[in-house]
Amino acid sequence: KKMQLPVYDLEEEVFGYNHGVISGIIARKWNLPESLIQAISFHHHPSSSESHAGLAAIIGFANYLCSVGDQKGSFKTTLLLKDHLDILESVFDDFTIDSIEQEVEHSKTIIQENSAIFSLLS
After folding, report:
1. Rounded Cα–Cα distance for residues 89 and 79 (Å)
2. CA 78 to CA 102: how far, in whole Å?
3. Cys-Cys link to 18, which of 9, 11, 43, 117 (CB 3.0-4.6 A)?
4. Are 24 and 41 in contact (CB under 8 A)?
5. Which residues 6+ apart lie within 8 Å of 55 measured at CB?
6. CA nearest 36: which of 16, 58, 19?
7. What are the residues whose beta carbons fall under 8 Å from the beta carbon of 32, sequence distance 6 or more?
8. Nearest to 24 by CA among 47, 43, 7, 9
9. The pTM of the whole model exceeds 0.85
10. Phi, psi for residue 66 in degrees, rounded to 5
11. Which residues contact 58 (CB under 8 A, 6 or more apart)?
């Protein structure tokens, strides 16, 4: 957190791979469909997916939204990669950075308003 680096970058630096790669290996061993394997493996770098970049970008965006309550500052300045945004804009006609800024802020509000419930779950 002090260095403000994404966890997956630190995983790659320390271990040589990130949790997406490991999860993709597990998904393959479990014989999950290739679309899910690609989405899991490349959710932080969806354009690296061979054939399911859209699904990988959706999973990556969902992953981002799960941590949005902890983020400071604007959606536009967070660790969500431009890679995700470009792919999501090509998949969804009404998906733009400006159109989702309000939804992200709304999500932050919901998370903050329900923080007591979330703390019970952890």
Report:
1. 17
2. 15
3. 11
4. yes
5. 35, 36, 38, 39, 49
6. 58
7. 40
8. 43
9. no
10. -65, -25
11. 39, 88, 91
